[in-house]
Write a sequence for this structure.
């Protein structure tokens, strides 16, 4: 029903996302109808939603086998016959692995972003593919430590990692590992960055800094 209605988006408004309720209601209240651009956007959402649902059903149906008069459900295979992946673009990136390449960050459709995809950028220029690769490597490594830890990554290689009693001490130890390569690298901390640590970090040119808080 959703798809048949969405195919007639020129005259039909189909809403599948509660986040669109207010916008649709406002357009109807003001103009007496929704705009064509709105109906097209909502139709696109319909097919994105139903295609993801169809893919999930297809993968489950492949586990069924039919015997004489009965249907059996097989154990979930380690490697399914087909994989249906529905992703949505979270953000466009400044460029890909090389400056002439386009890139984007995609997350599983129908689910809230997790990990680095759920992080909030506080300032600075748009991120590139390489920034995200280094940030994920640094963030994942910093999360391995229980005590205050600092990680410095450049071109997906660690320049220094340290765990100390304070975040400032950890950063200084990590920086001392290879202060030359640390220039222009990516930093990650497993604690909220305090003022003293922030003052030291400001002395180094860093592409990005990731932390639970600042």
């Amino acid at each position: 029903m959703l798809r048949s209605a969405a195919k007639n988006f020129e005259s039909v408004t189909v809403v599948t996302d509660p986040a669109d309720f207010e916008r649709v209601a406002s357009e109807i209240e003001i103009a007496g109808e929704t705009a064509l651009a709105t109906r097209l956007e909502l139709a696109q959402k319909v097919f994105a939603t139903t295609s993801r649902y169809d893919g999930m059903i297809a993968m489950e149906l492949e586990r069924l086998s039919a015997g004489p008069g009965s249907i059996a459900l097989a154990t979930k295979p380690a490697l399914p016959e087909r994989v249906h992946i529905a992703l949505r673009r979270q953000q466009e990136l400044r460029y890909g692995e090389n400056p002439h390449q386009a890139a984007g960050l995609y997350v599983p459709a129908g689910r809230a972003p997790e990990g680095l995809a759920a992080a909030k950028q506080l300032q600075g220029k748009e991120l590139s593919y390489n920034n995200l690769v280094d940030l994920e490597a640094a963030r994942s490594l910093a999360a391995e430590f229980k005590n205050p830890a600092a990680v410095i990554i450049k071109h997906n290689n660690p320049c220094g990692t340290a765990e100390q009693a304070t975040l400032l001490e950890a950063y200084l130890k990590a920086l001392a590992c290879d202060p030359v390569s640390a220039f222009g690298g990516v930093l990650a901390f497993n604690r909220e960055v305090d003022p003293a640590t922030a003052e030291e970090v400001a002395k180094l040119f860093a592409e990005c800094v990731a932390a639970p808080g600042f």
User: Anything to note?
Assistant: DSSP finds six helices and eight strands in the chain. The chain has a mean pLDDT of 92. The longest strand covers residues 157-163. The CA atoms of residues 149 and 163 lie 4 Å apart.
